[in-house]
Design goal:
11 strands; five-stranded mixed β-sheet; globular; Immunoglobulin-like
């Protein structure tokens, strides 16, 4: 289900003294039983772009080493950028005592061009068990 990127939760706005521009990219959020991708934001600070958001609890406890795959899809439908991202805290809080979300953030290699979209996927597997993580690791070398 494609959605527009939501408004920022303010974490990066606090860390950066520069004004931000939020890119209104279509976002596909893919969740699993271990966690849900609640929000995804693409913000540009000067010449740098970041993807940030919140992860909520799923139906089951997230596995140790669960992670996110963040992909920028170019206007032709090809993966232009891909990253494997951790979220903090790694054990998603239950919400019984305040915050029931974990946060994630990653810097993109480049600002996505107009017509791009974003896909954020929650993987309830350790990175060592994830074929996507292994592929991204090989491409980074």
């Amino acid at each position: 289900m494609a959605q527009r990127a939501e408004n920022s939760d303010g974490l990066f706005d606090f860390l950066f003294a520069r004004p931000r521009t939020e890119l209104a990219l279509p976002v596909e959020r893919i969740s699993s039983s271990g966690g849900t991708v609640e929000t995804a934001h693409v913000n540009v600070y000067g010449r740098e772009a970041y993807v940030t958001g919140l992860i909520g609890r799923g139906f089951h406890e997230a596995a140790i080493g669960s992670h996110l795959d963040v992909e920028v899809i170019n206007p032709r439908g090809k993966i232009a950028q891909s990253q494997v991202v951790n979220f903090l805290p790694a054990q998603i809080p239950s919400g019984r005592r305040g915050n029931s979300y974990s946060r994630y953030a990653t810097r993109l290699q480049a600002i996505p061009p107009p017509g791009s979209s974003l896909r954020v996927t929650f993987h309830n597997d350790a990175k060592s068990m994830c074929a996507f993580a292994a592929l991204v690791d090989r491409m980074a070398r």
